[in-house]
Predict the structure of Ectoine hydroxylase.
Amino acid sequence: MLLSQDAYKSRAQSTAAILKRNEPVVYDELMTSSAPALNTAQRDVYRENGFLMLPDLFSADEVTGLYDEMQQMRGDFTATGRAEVIAEPGSGEVRSIFDVHKLNALFANLVRDPRVLNVAREILGSEVYIHQSRINYKPGFTGKEFYWHSDFETWHTEDGMPAMRALSCSILLTDNSDLNGPLMLIPGSHRHFISCLGETPEDNYKKSLKKQEAGVPDDFLLRYLSDLGGIKSCTGKAGSVVFFDCNTMHGSNGNITPYPRSNLFFVYNSVENQLQAPTDGLAPRPGYIAVRDDVNALEPEPFVMA
Amino acid sequence: MLLSQDAYKSRAQSTAAILKRNEPVVYDELMTSSAPALNTAQRDVYRENGFLMLPDLFSADEVTGLYDEMQQMRGDFTATGRAEVIAEPGSGEVRSIFDVHKLNALFANLVRDPRVLNVAREILGSEVYIHQSRINYKPGFTGKEFYWHSDFETWHTEDGMPAMRALSCSILLTDNSDLNGPLMLIPGSHRHFISCLGETPEDNYKKSLKKQEAGVPDDFLLRYLSDLGGIKSCTGKAGSVVFFDCNTMHGSNGNITPYPRSNLFFVYNSVENQLQAPTDGLAPRPGYIAVRDDVNALEPEPFVMA
């Protein structure tokens, strides 16, 4: 990919910029032979806003099982020094664990569940694979903010993801209220590419997963997008699921309440949108952040709690 | 005040503790000769929850004038190096300006306005004076959290305030939404004194106004209070006012939205509750944080925007 042909060049200019999105948000091809996972109204909401919440997609029993598994993983992985484990700035508590769909059998099954997988296949109009998976714990009392960003800006620049044909699926494993730092999204922001200032430091991911410093959108453009589309927080009960486009601007405030805000994130990427070389001669990020070696189409298989 | 007689000893024990409140929350004596500022239902809400919100107490014109004045002060005081100006950790933006009722004529008038002053006089059942005043800017994008605390815990320990007979009046100068880090309070927490661990470092206020490290309540007790009373955020339009008891546990999350959450705070203390020596032989904090030299009863005088 030559820079001169790059429609989504970022971190290379002397000024921030706002660029038009080229790709569709929702593809027309339906990949599922059975009843579609989304109805027309839901597809329209996703196309318009760049995200969609499906309340109570997982049952209370499933949530209990998944939550326990997540806590078990947290215990098992604390103080292992593994690269997949990211600590909160300050408190050192576990902030995120990456690659959970490879590290854990239950989550490996979950990414194939038709309730989530088929939504991804329908929206992206193709077979899909997991580009990245993680748990974000956001602990009570000490959970820190995630600043505004477009995932695609990073995945394009640092991972060489060619086009906006990926989405995140966030499964709420605790209740997400207005108070404990819920995901905030800017409706409509997915239609604009915000090109950011600044060069990417070497091994940027080692810092950026705690606190983003490259790929940070400009204040003026954030204000513009927010004034245009508003800001919507994704609050809901555990078991609800939010799907959002790879280019939807999002972030979340910190959490001083005693109640953790813990969510699973699966990033589905179209098999037709596989990673190329990162821009600007950057070294590819490790496989636990950006999968390159396992890009076969996921086969739907209903998730069954053991 | 001897420690052995101190009903609200804090930062001196080897374990955190929860103690019963001794003083009334709302006093029976009505200090106003004219129509009372609060009706019975409002007094009951304040007594029960430890706080009360009065929506739209100030008009849109008054809000505009006060907001402009606040911004003017911010500009005038940035980079002056004055002690009253507290910077945000990290960004260095103005987080708070203290003593605004002495530094600014408009705010000096505002503290006497019957709409706020008479509420304080009625609840505290006596004449009152200003113990502390400040603007909290909480800027957009970079506004950091204020961690949970009881004001009284600090004012008692560091300022020698004898009893729980003071309140804060917070005038919203921007809209406070669920998204921009609104004040959160724990209903009912004002009935319990949370004695905190740890000794007070010398000149603690120099750090604690940015980030509190002494007087931090225990996680377990915060969880207990929250489970008992819930957590309520004080959202509302600019011009609304929140009154809360000096011992109501409160805090706020950070603010990454583009929209600042700026509020005025006036702390009214009963003239019968004047400061004594701080506990543990601490030096008194400076007058811009804890007034000792101007404790005459405030005379009500309607606020008129110039």
Observations:
- Chain A touches chain B at residues 140-141, 145, 147-148, 178-179, 181, 184, 219, 222-223, 226-227, 231, 233, 251-259 (CB under 8 Å).
- The longest helix of chain A spans residues 60-77.
